[in-house]
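PT: before anyone asks, these are the final sequences, not the draft ones from last week. 515 residues across everything. Please model them as a single complex and drop the result in this thread when it's through.
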Amino acid sequence: MDRVHELIAFLLIALGVTVTRFHFAPRVIRPLVRAQIYRAGVCLLPMIGFLGCALGLIIIGQTVSLLERVGAEDFIGKLMVTVVVRELGPLLTAVVVLARVGAATVVELGTSRAQGDVEALEALGIDPIHYLVVPRMWGLAVSVFALTIYLVLTALLSGYLFAFLQNVPMRPSEYFQQLAGALRWEDFVMLTLKATAFGIIIAVVTCYQGLAKPLRIEEVPAATTRAVVSSVVACILVDAVFVVAYLLI
Amino acid sequence: MSATVEKIARPPVIEMFDVAVSSARAPDIAVVADVNWRVLLDDFWVLGAPPGSGKSDLLATAAGLQLPLRGVHRLFGQELLSLGEAERLHERLRVGVVFEGGARPFTHLTVADNVALPLRYHREGSEADIRQRVEEILEATGLAAVADRAPAHLVRSMHPRVGLARALALAPEVLLLDDPLAGLDPRQTRWWLDFIGSLAAGHPILKSRKMTLVVACGHMRPWMNRGRQFALLKDKQLLPLGGRAELEHCNEPLLRELVAAEFTSD
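LR: through. Structure below.
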């Protein structure tokens, strides 16, 4: 429970630093945010493209095909929006970013802290939260959001392609009309909020595990495992809150 | 009388009254207690301290990076806790610190970018001005030839120089050095002693302004002819010993041990 309190305090400090130092040292912080977007966003595009195709071919294509066979083709749009746009897209993207970037962040920051980088930054009057955490937080928030959009688009397109190859008698215009009809304005708002929240959660949890306490080098692997588990649990809990929000709207 | 006049003419830059210094790893434990110490402008203090005596924590507290457990700590005549965040940062930046081993250079930045980092973070000058300042510092510290290299491609013994160059970027008035000669070969040691001596005398990169220096070290012999004020960290206490003249009459066994200790480059 103490760790949850510390984590929430760490998140509030990082958000506070973002607000109070929003215009401070832009020529140092903005390149760091861009570097994080490149690392967590651009570099993961091929992987997200591959996963989107796999998701489309394995799940969506089969679902479309099945619904056609049982005569429930009217539900395709609704089902795709609920499964892919609302749930699988953001969550799967968050898991990929956590595995590829989040775990590396704990190792980097844990090693960095163990070797005295935090003290070196403080000696130069540079706020370690501002320099190390804020760029990762906003870089990952933007990256998870952008990658979620790519994953959803790739999955929906490749899903239809698979259904088409299986000779499902559904024209592309019908498929996309159903999708457009099933999408509501709150889906766009919730997708944006959820993906951004997942990015912030991954950044804050991994930075907290790497930075909050002085680590010895041999403690870094255990901190990485804790960060991955905590991030997954936190993302699922936040996802549950969004599900409740959907039901209430 | 002349000593008194000199003390009045040279204002205190660091003052500690009944200060208890905490440890970075255990913030509730005092590693050095009852510190009463005044560093005046242009002083050159040499603190002899055996390993594990709390010299790094004392320097961090003196620089305002760590809060004392108790007591009064002033930088340039002002208590940091009584200042707002911006003023506190302004006072803190007047004191540079080079931790033991030179504080590892940031590996994601080149040598030049390491030195430019504090300038880009704190100053609003143009990029051309920053580059010019960085070139001056790199030239003075003998790093100009490796300016564009990543720290990973530098000889390890050059890393502390990057830490020193980075600490000098903001032209601090006081520089605190934590065992700067640890692990250096004789050639590097000679360079460091000469360069720190030139900072004390007034280096061109500081517009020939004399720099106030505090060097904490485990081997005092290399500093005996360079320091002007001496102190020891012994049994969790800071023992000011006075100037070179007073050292000759000092019978403190730890002083003899730290001066006699064979200086080896690890």
